[in-house]
Structure formats: C-alpha cells, structure tokens
Write a structure and sequence with these properties.
24 strands; 421 residues; binds uridine-diphosphate-N-acetylglucosamine
Amino acid sequence: MDNIRVEGGVPLSGRVRISGAKNAALPILTAALLADGAHTFRNVPDLRDVHTMLRMLRRLGIDAEYERGVATVQARPVLEPVAPYDLVKQMRASVLVLGPLVARYGRASVSLPGGCAIGARPIDQHLRGLEAMGAAVRLEHGYVHVDVPSGRLRGADIYLDFPTVTGTENLLAAAALAEGRTTIGNAAREPEIEELAHVLNKMGASVDGAGTDTIVVEGREQLAPVDHAIIADRIEAGTYMVAAAATRGDVLLEGVQLEHLDAVVAKLREAGVTVEREGDGVRVAHQGRLRPVDATTAPHPGFPTDMQAQLMVLMCRADGQSQIRETVFENRFMHVPELNRMGANIAVDGRTATVRGVPRLGGAQVMATDLRASASLVIAGLVAEGVTEVLRVYHIDRGYERIEEKLAGLGAHIERVSGHA
Ligand code: UD1
C-alpha cells in the first residue's frame, strides 16, 4: 500500500488546476442508466471512486471507458439491476445506482453499505422517498430489494427528514422517469445537486428548483443520452486553499467556481487569509499570524463537513483558541488523535473540537482513516517541521487527483512511496 512522505516547511507557491468534482461525477455517471445510447462525460477526475463507479456500470452490463478525463458510457438495457457487496463496500456512493435503476426497470437490489468510518450513514431517506413513489422495499440477506409492483414509479410529494445529498440525487434521478410530478421538500442544496439537475434537463428531463430546498420534477417517459463537462471540485479547491494558507504560501487556483465556496472563503478571510479573484483564477495567500475562527459544519450553503478536517489543521496554526463543531456526521474527528501526535492541542467533547493554536507541529508517521482526514494529515505534514509519513493513502486516491504531483508543482517536498502499512 502506498504512503505519502512530506518534508514540511515550504510555503506553497505557483499555480494549480482544480479537477472535476468527484461528488458531481458519481451521480452523473449513474444518470447514464436512465437513457440508452452513447453518453460522453468530460472533466471527469481520475479517481479511485470514479473507477469504482465505472466498474459498477460494467458489472451492470454497460460499456464504460475512461481516458484522460473523458468517460464514455454506452448504456443499454440492464438485465440484472444489482449493486453487489464487493463494490458497495468499497464506496458508499454506489447506492446512487438505486434511483436510476428503479426508475428505469421497476426493480433494483443494492447491497447495504456496511459500517462506515464516519458515522452510521443510513439510507432510510432514499428508501422512504422511493416508497412514497410506489415502490416496495424489502431487506434480505444484507441487500435492500426495491420493487415497483406497477412497473413504473409515480410522482409524489416527498419531504426529507434531513437534506441528504445522495438521497436527494437518487430521488431526483428516479423522479425524472416517474409518472407525473414529484416534489422533494427539504432537499439538499449542494452545487452537485444543481449539476445533476442540469444534466438531467439536458437529457430531456424537467427539473426545477435544484439548488433550493424544494425541487419539482415532471416525469418523462424517456430521456436521451448526453454530452457534458463536469464542474470543478469545490472540496479539492478548498483543500488547496487551506494548504496555501497553512504554509504561508501564495497560490493561484485555476478552474475554481468561487461561488460554490462561500462558507469556506468566509472562514479563511475571517482568519486573515487573502482570497481574491485574479483573472480566471483565485489567488490565496497568507503571511504572518492567523486569527482563530469558530466553525460549525452544516448542509450547503453552510460550512462543508468535507472541509472540517482541513480547517482544523489551519486552526492548529492560529493565535489562540477556536471551536469546530461537526453536525452532519457523528464520529468525524478521527484525524484528531493523529494531529495531536504531531504536536497539535485539540480536545474533543462530543461533537465539538476545541483547538488551541501551537507554535509548531512536528513530523510523524500518521495513519489516514478516511478521505478528508487524509487530506488534513497531508496539510499538517506540509506545515510540520521534519518528515511526515501519511500511511494508507489509498483513501486520498479516492478523492484527490495526483495530489502529490500537484503539491510538488507548488514547491512542496512530497513523494509517494511504496509502503508496508
Ligand atoms: C455526501 C457526499 C459526502 C459528504 C456528505 C455531506 C457524495 C458522493 N458524498 O455523502 O462527500 O460528506 O454528502 O455533505 O456526494 N442520513 C440519514 N438518512 C439517509 C441519508 C443520510 O440519516 O437516508 C444522514 C447521515 O447519517 C448523515 C447525514 O444524513 O448524518 C448526511 O448524509 P448525506 O447527506 O446522505 O451524505 P452522503 O450523501 O452519503
């Protein structure tokens, strides 16, 4: 298994291009199941999760190829609409095939994701929405089996208990082929939802209100294949912003959609970091001291849970005490003990982490436990004195394209090494 070795202390500088958004690519790839024919998706990041989703499509009998950012999917009728355990256990977002499969074939079986490192993450809201649209749900032998007795979902008024991202996406895709109108209330408002709605509309669907908390979908009998370029990854962008600030660097991010990053940019500016548009890019720079800032994660447009670990590393370098509250997932502070081993001073009480800034972090061997936690440890390594080795970087490969190359391009002393852990 590969590790990442970082020698800290170099301020990042230069330009970095932000890749396509993983969390937009995944639901969009599954949307191809809604219409037979040749789909082309561009700006698709070369990530483990994307390849897992392409494998899932192939397992369903669909040709799915990937070459240098372009995914071509030749959709044809699926004979066995089943998402098997070996793929779902690698990536929880595999559940995104559920909505499209049920809408298209009136049935689907998806292995239930097992215990996940960051909280329980159930899919009850996905299933309740499908039930409201006329599906029957049965749990058996670790699989959830969804059947539509009438063969076609019908539109319904759905109100989510929590604005779940993949839940909203599953129901949105399902509603696109349902009979009649579906309203999804308390819908997730993430930019990736808007992006999926945009793609569905290009395919001939009628989706209104994506990006607000109420989405209205008029179901269609049929959709058509699509050619689409995927938006930039706001979380990758936010991660490089924090890396630039934490190392007291000066970095120009290219291809960012700054309007997707309001909550992150607000916190960076509050901490004293310079974030400004420059030409087509966004310049992030910092020198001197950092002010401590408090943050609470929340569904979009709140501060993203996927940026919580990275902000925490930044706060380790602030002058004073900050509090970071995690409200989206329980148990998403697994980076804390590792950061403390590097000399951070972070105390966790329930869902709140209290971070006291320290004058220095020291390099250490640390273990990545999930995708964003891994990113935070790499940033900590960039800041720390001495050498940090982040073990088990396969987590990082799920969500960051060529991270060591991109950081090396910004001057970091970083390399991937074949490891033992
Ligand atoms: C998506 C993102 C992930 C991000 C998360 C929150 C993708 C592929 N992944 O994950 O990167 O961290 O949003 O922004 O887009 N919940 C329920 N019942 C459900 C569904 C969710 O109780 O049916 C709860 C979960 O336990 C969790 C919270 O809702 O506490 C948020 O989960 P959700 O928005 O569903 O996250 P994902 O869609 O899995």
